[in-house]
Amino acid sequence: MLSCPDRCSVPSFDDCFRATLGDLFAWRRDVRRFRQDPVDEAALRACLALANLSPSVGNSHPWRFVRVSDADRRGAILASFERCNADAGTRYTDARRELYRRLKLEGLREAPVHLAVFCDEATESGHGLGRRTMPEMLRYSVVGAVQGFWLAARAYGLGVGWVSILEPDRVKTVLEVADAWHLVAYLCVGYPVEEHLDPELERHGWQGRSEDASRLIER
Asked: In the chain, what are the domain boundaries?
């Protein structure tokens, strides 16, 4: 039995909770189609607080969430996406190119909340523990926080879309952040227009889920 101060009790996670947790993971979708209703501020803050519980190398908490509300900055981010997306479309040929052009790959115009998530690579928090041989652990820690935020958002009825078709240096310039900050994610957040258990890219014929994804490799 774990010893714990009076203010702390060790939770018990039963089969019912685990089933609900499985539903949360299964229904976490990459959302691109948002209603324009304002996001409840308390819900957004609660999701950010839960993301802050994510593990980080050396307990360094290197994630930096930046809310992008200014219309001109949002317009510059959208322009970056449009440049990158047009270029990406040229990399495919024939039917795959046409399919790519029909995909909706962002919700930048509709989403009421934009969050740029950076890794502060100059942080002194954690005193360098755990990243001497793997400095990329700082960025991996930020990815963990993004996933934590994403799952929390799903639990609050919010949708999240991760936009990766962007110019990271351009985003940094537009948002005027520190040189040592590295862009990890640009998130669109809002209430989804529709709910689907299957991923959008699977639904529209781009790529199905791998049947081998859960296989454990033994060595």
From this structure: 30-203
Q: Are strands 159-163 and 181-190 parallel, antiparallel or unpaired?
A: antiparallel
CA angle 141, 146, 147 (to 5 degrees): 95
Check: CB of residue 69 under 8 Å from CB of residue 111.
Answer: no
Q: How far apart are the first and last CA of the chain?
A: 34
Mean pLDDT of 75-81: 98
- Number of Cβ atoms within 10 Å of the Cβ of 122: 11
What is the pTM for the complete model shown? 0.91
Name the CATH superfamily for 30-203.
Answer: NADH Oxidase (3.40.109.10)
pLDDT at 1 over 50: no
Query: How far apart are alpha carbons 205 and 64 in whole angstroms?
Result: 35
Q: Sheet containing 159-163: give its strands across.
A: 63-67, 113-120, 181-190, 159-163
**Spatial distance between the Cα atoms of 182 and 56, rounded to a whole number of angstroms:** 16
Q: What are phi and psi of 116, to 5 degrees?
A: -95, 130
Helices (H), the chain: 15-26, 41-51, 71-89, 94-102, 137-155, 168-175, 200-203
Cβ neighbour number for residue 61 with a 10 Å cutoff: 18
Residue 188 is classified by DSSP as E
Q: Which residues pair with 187 in a beta bridge?
A: 115, 162
